[in-house]
């Protein structure tokens, strides 16, 4: 998502909020309530953002978790901290609804990406309000007095403001608004706020598996990430999985003089280039045999949703200085529903001023494969290894011995790591259709994607609990998440409160 943070100028320049009038009664109540309590909502947000939230900072993580539990208890919501040894606590909360036949779990994370304070214009844990973005020369402003209206285009700068403390504030404000309006929840509501998502959710699955009954639910709404670049609400029904593939191919034992041995000693950089060229065609289609065989085809509903998604490809090309795109004319939204094979980087010997006249001894590449639903990570890895064999390589998974290198014309060392399968919740499920209806009654026509391009810890939720996940982001797309000067546009928080109120009363 980080790649999209600079889209502001292009897609939302001038940025007046196109405010949709919700048809959902809980959203309407949330709007009225918010308009009367803007300062109190922002105050609670500011006090949470003041607590540093880097996952490795155990003491402050604990303070965050206790503060959030306190915010829930203040509202009469049963709360507790749940963890496994060595893990950061998940803050759990529950609103029981008498007679409810289903449970909806609202997920967000309170930890944030590691940072270097020197890169920030104002300190990351001193929440600062600005009248515009820093990129557009926004100036620091003081919080307006109680009862004064906030400009919805103002930005609140702090680590975690967008990713991902805003949903926590939106959910709790929605609870207040629902209650103040005398509205009732129909489902049991649970909250699960993770404290180490940005560290790769190392204990999420273990913690859920050890506390299945506590965290069980019919649906997990994963409230994380930014809304669509057009500022329409995004609903993503899954995420891609990933495998990392490292390949090294070998030349002579050590670097050789290119004058004395050129034309005779095979060059590993060229061998690696040939291998990589064999893996994809000119349009970017992967040529590894059977690579696409197990891809779960999109349903008609999913295809229709893609066709209806706004076409922002031309804008993105200008933003990223691209003169062409891969995919044979397909749009980005469709291409991210397909698996990809990407070169993260490659290296052989030295270049430029550091270059010497040698035949390199080896050449290496790190690749990632993004998986979609239906693809088994291990099977996919085996297919890639088989492809490398078919190009004439003797494949090993450790540093090859001298004997191996002498007895085979071409040797490749291949290691596979980080295998994570993809998840996609069918859009046709009654619960999916209901979520779409409810979201659109709060926020207007939504952009619906079968899956996001990147990863999210969805398998860590679905595997232990046997539940379903749907991703409902709140943040502005130009929020600088994961980078310095992270910020939240206030209108996104206001929209989030109305959205959460609708989802909590479904
Ligand atoms: Zn996040």
Q: How do the strands and helices of this protein lay out in sequence?
A:
Elements: H1 8-11, H2 25-36, H3 38-49, H4 58-73, E1 78-82, E2 90-95, E3 103-109, E4 128-130, E5 140-141, E6 155-157, H5 166-180, E7 188-194, H6 204-210, H7 212-215, E8 219-222, E9 234-236, E10 238-239, E11 241-250, E12 256-257, H8 258-261, H9 268-277, H10 300-308, H11 313-319, H12 332-335, E13 340-347, E14 358-359, E15 362-371, H13 377-390, E16 394-396, H14 402-407, E17 411-420, E18 423-424, H15 430-443, E19 447-449, H16 459-465, E20 468-471, E21 487-489, H17 490-504
Parallel strand pairs: 3-7, 3-8, 8-20, 9-19, 16-17
Antiparallel strand pairs: 1-2, 2-7, 4-5, 4-6, 6-21, 10-18, 11-15, 11-17, 12-14, 13-15
Helix pairs in contact: 2-5, 2-17, 5-17, 6-16, 15-17
Residues 109, 163-164, 197, 224 line the site of zinc ion.
Structural descriptors:
single chain, disordered N terminus, 506 residues, 2 domains, Alpha-Beta Plaits, binds zinc ion, 32% helix, 5-stranded mixed beta sheet, alpha/beta, Aminopeptidase, 6-stranded mixed beta sheet
Q: What's the helical proportion of residues?
A: 25-40%
Q: Under the CATH scheme, which class of the largest domain?
A: Alpha Beta
Strand content: 15-25%
Estimated radius of gyration? 25 Å
The spatial strand order of the largest sheet comes to: 1-2-7-3-8-20
Number of separate helices: 17
Instruction: Give the end-to-end Cα distance, rounded to a whole number of Å.
Output: 29 Å
* SS-based class: alpha/beta
Based on the coordinates given, report the CATH architecture of the largest domain.
3-Layer(aba) Sandwich
List the domain count as a whole number: 2
CATH homologous superfamily grouping of the largest domain: Zn peptidases
CATH domain fold name of the largest domain: Aminopeptidase
Q: Describe the largest sheet.
A: 6 strands, mixed
Low-confidence stretches: 1-17
């Amino acid at each position: 998502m980080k790649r999209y943070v600079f889209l502001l100028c292009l897609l939302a320049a001038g940025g007046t909020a196109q405010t949709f009038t919700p048809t959902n009664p809980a959203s309407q109540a949330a709007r009225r309530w918010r308009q009367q309590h803007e300062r109190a909502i922002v105050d609670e947000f500011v006090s949470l953002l003041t607590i540093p939230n880097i996952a490795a900072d155990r003491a402050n993580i604990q303070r965050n978790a206790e503060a959030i539990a306190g915010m829930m208890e203040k509202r009469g919501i049963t709360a507790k901290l749940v963890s496994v040894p060595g893990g950061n606590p998940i803050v759990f909360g529950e609103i029981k609804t008498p007679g409810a036949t289903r449970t909806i779990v609202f997920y967000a994370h309170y930890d944030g990406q590691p940072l270097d304070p020197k890169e920030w214009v104002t300190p990351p844990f001193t929440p600062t309000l600005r009248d515009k973005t820093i990129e557009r020369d926004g100036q620091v402003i003081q919080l307006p007095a109680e009862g004064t209206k906030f400009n919805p285009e103002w930005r609140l700068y702090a680590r975690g403001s967008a990713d991902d403390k805003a949903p926590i504030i939106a959910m709790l404000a929605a609870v207040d608004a629902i209650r103040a309006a005398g509205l009732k929840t129909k489902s049991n509501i649970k909250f699960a706020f993770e404290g180490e998502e940005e560290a790769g959710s190392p204990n999420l699955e273990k913690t859920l598996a050890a506390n299945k009954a506590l965290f069980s639910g019919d649906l997990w709404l994963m409230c994380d990430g930014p809304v669509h670049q057009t500022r329409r609400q995004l609903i993503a029904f899954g995420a891609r999985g990933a495998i990392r593939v490292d390949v090294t191919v070998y030349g002579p034992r050590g670097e050789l003089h290119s004058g004395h041995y050129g034309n005779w000693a095979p060059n590993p950089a060229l061998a690696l280039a040939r291998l990589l060229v064999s893996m994809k065609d000119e349009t970017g289609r992967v040529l590894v045999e059977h690579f696409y065989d197990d891809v779960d085809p999109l349903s008609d509903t999913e295809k229709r949703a893609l066709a209806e998604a706004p076409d922002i490809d031309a804008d993105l090309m200008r933003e990223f200085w691209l003169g062409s795109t891969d995919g044979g004319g397909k749009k980005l939204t469709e291409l991210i529903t397909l698996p990809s094979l990407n070169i993260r980087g490659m290296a052989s010997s030295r270049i430029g001023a550091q270059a010497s006249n040698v035949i390199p001894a080896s050449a290496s590449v790190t690749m990632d494969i993004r998986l979609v639903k239906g693809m088994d990570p291990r099977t996919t890895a085996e297919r890639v290894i088989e492809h490398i064999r078919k190009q004439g390589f003797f494949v090993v998974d450790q540093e090859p011995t001298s004997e191996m290198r002498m007895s085979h014309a071409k040797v490749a060392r291949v290691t596979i790591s980080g295998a994570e399968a993809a998840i996609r919740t069918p859009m046709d499920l009654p619960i999916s259709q209901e979520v779409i209806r409810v979201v659109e009654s709060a926020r207007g026509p939504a952009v619906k994607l079968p899956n996001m391009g990147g990863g999210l810890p969805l398998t860590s939720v679905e595997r232990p609990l046997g539940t379903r996940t749907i991703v409902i982001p709140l943040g502005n797309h130009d929020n600088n998440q994961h980078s310095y000067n992270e910020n939240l546009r206030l209108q996104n928080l206001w929209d989030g409160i109305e959205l959460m109120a609708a989802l909590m009363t479904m």
